[in-house]
Amino acid sequence: xxxxxxxxxxxxxxxxxxxxxxxxxxxxxxxxxxxxxxxxxxxxxxxxxxxxxxxxxxxxxxxxxxxxxxxxxxxxxxxxxxxxxxxxxxxxxxxxxxxxxxxxxxxxxxxxxxxxxxxxxxxxxxxxxxxxxxxxxxxxxxxxxxxxxxxxxxxxxxxxxxxxxxxxxxxxxxxxxxxxxxxxxxxxxxxxxxxxxxxxxxxxxxxxxxxxxxxxxxxxxxxxxxxxxxxxxxxxxxxxxxxxxxxxxxxxxxxxxxxxxxxxxxxxxxxxxxxxxxxxxxxxxxxxxxxxxxxxxxxxxxxxxxxxxxxxxxxxxxxxxxxxxxxxxxxxxxxxxxxxxxxxxxxxxxxxxxxxxxxxxxxxxxxxxxxxxxxxxxxxxxxxxxxxxxxxxxxxxxxxxxxxxxxxxxxxxxxxxxxxxxxxxxxxxxxxxxxxxxxxxxxxxxxxxxxxxx
Length: 454
Hints:
CATH superfamily of one domain: Dihydrodipicolinate Reductase, domain 2
C-alpha cells in the first residue's frame, strides 16, 4: 500500500477484523461462479449500509464477481453484509473490518465499491487507486469541488478506473431521450426543469439532542472522518446524514445530481455560466441545516436550467414527484426512471398580435408524439464497470463526467449560502471575482483525515 496513506487509528482499532477471516484466506468463490478464475473480479465493499446493500444486490447477481472483503465503521453493517454475501454466493464468509485500509493492502482484490456517506467518498477512493485498486464510488462524487478534483487527479496519476453511481447514464431510455433532445426534434431547447417534491412537514426527522453516546458497535470518530468533531446524534448518522452540510449537500446533492447529470449530457455541457438560488428551511421543524425548499437557476449558453425542491408540498409536477422536462419550440420531453414521453407543441396566435397584424398562417409542427418505458439503469451500469476492469476503457460514468454533474449541486448550494448570483469559470473551477464563494469550494479536513498529496 502506498506510503502516502496514513495509518491513523489502524493499529489497535477495535474491530479491524471483526469476526473476520484472514486477509489471506482462500478465495470466496461460490457455486454460481461460471467464469474462469483468471476472469473473475474480486471486490471489496466499503460502507455497506442501505445504499451499499442495494448495490450489492446488483453486483452479486453477476457470475464473475466475488466480494471477499467488507469494511464499515458499524460492526453490525459489516457483519450482516458478510453473512448475506456468504448466503447468496454460497461461499466462504468475507473478512470484515472497521478500517478499510486493511482491505487495500490485499494483493488479491481488484476493485472496491464505495457506498459511504458523501464526506467519506474522496479519501477511500484516492487511497484505493494509490493502492492499485479500481473504484466504483456512489454519487455525489464528493463533499466539495476540491475533493472531486483530487479524485480525478489521483485517477489520472495511477491510471486506475473510477466509475460513479450515476446509473441513469446506462439506461437505454435515458440515452434515447438525450438523442431526441440533441437531434433537434424538439426544436430549440431553451428551458429545462428538474425537480423533487414531497411533503414531510412539519415534523420531518424530528429534533434530537447531541448528548447521546454513539453505539458501542460503531467507531464514531472514524465515521466523522474529515468532518468537524461533534457529539453523536442519530439524526446526523446513518441515512439522515445527507441533510447536514458537514457530511453532504441535502436534496440538491442527493437527487439533484441524478437529474442535472442527464441535463449536462443532453446539452453537451460541462457546466453552467452562472447560478443563483433562493430558499430555506421553511416547512420542517427538525435538525437539518440544509434547505427543505430550494429554487436554483442555472444559465447555460443555449438554455436555462431550473432545479426545484420542496419538502412541504407533494403536489406532482406533470404528474410526477421528480423528473426532467426539456422544453423546445416544437415540443416537450418529460423524462424520469419510469420512461419518457414526447409531447408535440402547437403554435398560438395571441389576441394582441392578431389584433395588430391580422390573421396569418402559422407554421406547422411535424413532431410526432412518442413514449417509452424505462428503468434506473443500475444493472447495465454495474456490468459496464466490471467489463471496464478487463478492457481498461473509461466507464459510462467516468469520474470526470460525474464530477461536473456533482459540481452543479455544489454550485447551487454555494449560491444559496452566499445569497447572490455567481459567475462560474468552468475550466478553472472557480467563481469569477468572488473569494467568499471560492472559499466554499473546499474545506479544511479534521486532523488525521487530510487528503494525501497526489
